[in-house]
Amino acid sequence: MWRTPLIFYLLAALAPALRARELAGAVAPQDCSLDCIRQGGPACEYCRVSRGDVKTALGFSAGGAFGSCVPWPCFELVGREDPKICQHYVQAPDDVKVEFLHDPDPKSDTAVVSWRPSPYGIAFLRGFQVSLQALGGSASSCQLFLFHRNVSLPASHTQKVYRSDPFPGLFLGAQYAVTVMALPVPEQWEKFYHSQTFSTRSCAEKNSLEQCKEDWYPNQVEVQQEGTAITVTFNLAPPDLGIRSYFSLCHANGLKKYTDITPNSTKNKTHHTYQLKGLQEGTNYTCAIAANEVDAVRKTFNVQVMRLHKGPLSKPPFSVSTSLAVVLPLGLIALVAFVVMLAAFLKRRPRFHMKKLQSSSMKPDIIKHHEDSETQEEVVSLSKSRPSPPRLLICYSSSDGPAHVRAVLHLGAFIQQHMATQVYLDLWDSLGVAEEGSMAWHCRHIRDSDFVLVVCSRGLRPERGPRGPAGRSGDHNQTTPDLEADAHDSDVAVRLIGEEVCRARARGQDLSKYMAAIFRYSEETDIPAELRLVSHYTLTRDLPLLFSHLHGVALHRPGGYLKIDHVSEEGFAQVASGAALQRAIHEAAAAMTAERQLSEDEGEAVV
């Protein structure tokens, strides 16, 4: 019987080694020239292409386009001699995987992507383009790899593993989207790329727990009690981390007890002991202890404060005569009282029984409310009947400057990471937008999404004209065509959503699919008139209401309440994405204030 577990254990132990061996045997990129690729030399089997090569081939700098990961210019790079090689269909790669490499920087991670080519169209495969984008940000990194023009891969090459160059400098504990695109890209767009999301390693996973301030927590906590005096002993962080203070937080029945802890390292460098004071007797507390650092991991433990019996432990014995003198009269009085109460009860029992039946039949809701009020509140869990998370499309106006767009990006990242929701945002799907066109992409996601959230701002006001890159209205000379196109597409998409809302309202349909929201630096008047028919929220104050709307659960009910970690106005900033959202909203508010002040100064100057 021990053979089967042993086999599984050996397979689990060998899996990382086998994967590393497979990655080591993958086809790695090599340095080549574009001339070698075009001529089809044998030394140009699988080549990396730099931005300088693209600039040389095109005759101008394509850094912006290449940096945004747009489809590569096939005709200009390898299609001049034979344009037909750029017109065949090649399907998306398979088995895309992300592996992490050794990175000497303890604050970042390095990843490499590997994949296998699809058998469909492999004879016409000319290369791959790999892009990496951080969720919650617009910056992306791209790599381009090409085969020489005379290559014609057989179907057996579908078992070969190709790999990218390393992507260094990735933030620890962050989410990224990787896209591997098969080349060439045909004129009629198809499913030619594969996208997936992954998370980089945490600081503890990469550097060990003892090297990370945020991930370190006391793993040895000992609680001793003598009466109402609670003494707690825990192990201190290693001196290399530079942690000098800690805190303890205990809560029970709505009461909280916060304790600052500053150990004296000269007395004991490994452990520290402190006392919990001010706890109520007869109460069970849930306590947490952690380093006094932002987003530090907390170690929880329970404390039960015993109730002490006050007064002397023993009483002097009474004499027999005193005991009889006291007990006999009390016994007679108790017997008489019992006989009187029994007679009264037997006499009124039928009347009381009828009254009870009538009250229970006439007021069942009162009785149910009374029964519910006696029960303690319980945490309401989410329904597990939904097979997949709700799909949410976020629309916004890009006319209010980059600070507002960053706030929208961080909002989408927070909702996707901590509100159990699949978020669709055009800035996260640049390939899809390029493939379908901005309006077609928005129309498809409006139709297919479960919910649509419009983040309203001043740029959606109908009386405001085009805005420049800094967000000022009326600065037409400084507005670039790309920004005007983006603003136009976003405004048209919002108007399209408004039309859908009005049409659904006229037909008497449910409007819960559509929502509007504003950040704290915007005003209610920034919400278009047609979107005021739907639910609208102020963020981040109404994050619990938004969660309730997305998942169809009540925040409160008799005897219970909804408790979701980090989804509250006070708790959302305790996680990294929430803190980033809070900072982005603050920066956008400062930018909006500066813009209004500048507009007022310009108005006064004109007058």
Overall description:
This protein has 3 domains: 18-207, Immunoglobulin-like, CATH 2.60.40; 209-305, Immunoglobulin-like; 391-606, Rossmann fold (3-Layer(aba) Sandwich), CATH 3.40.50. The longest helix is centred in the middle third of the chain and has 43 residues, at 320-362. It is 34% helix and 23% strand. The chain starts with a helix and ends with a helix. 27% of the residues are buried. It has 14 helices and 25 strands. A 6-stranded mixed sheet has the order 1-2-6-5-9-10. It has helices spanning 3-24, 34-39, 51-58, 63-67, 74-77, 203-207, 320-362, 364-374, 401-418, 430-436, 438-448, 481-506, 543-551, 576-606, and strands spanning 30-31, 47-49, 94-101, 108-116, 127-134, 140-146, 162-163, 167-171, 175-183, 193-199, 221-226, 229-235, 246-252, 255-261, 271-276, 283-291, 299-305, 378-380, 391-396, 422-424, 451-455, 514-519, 535-539, 556-557, 560-562. It is an alpha+beta fold and 607 residues long.
Main-sheet strand order equals 1-2-6-5-9-10
Query: Which range best describes the helical content: under 10%, 10-25%, 25-40%, 40-55%, 55-70% or over 70%?
Result: 25-40%
Secondary structure category: alpha+beta
CATH fold-level assignment of the largest domain: Rossmann fold
Question: Beta-strand percentage?
Answer: 15-25%
- Mind telling me the C-alpha Rg? 34 Å
Tally the structural domains.
3
Low-confidence stretches: 4-21, 63-68, 311-320, 352-381, 464-487
Q: What is the average per-residue confidence, as pLDDT, rounded to a whole number?
A: 75
Biggest sheet descriptor: 6 strands, mixed
The number of distinct helices, counting runs of at least 4 residues, comes to 14
CATH class placement of the largest domain: Alpha Beta
First-last Cα distance: 92 Å
CATH architecture name of the largest domain: 3-Layer(aba) Sandwich
What is the overall shape? extended
Q: Count the strands?
A: 25
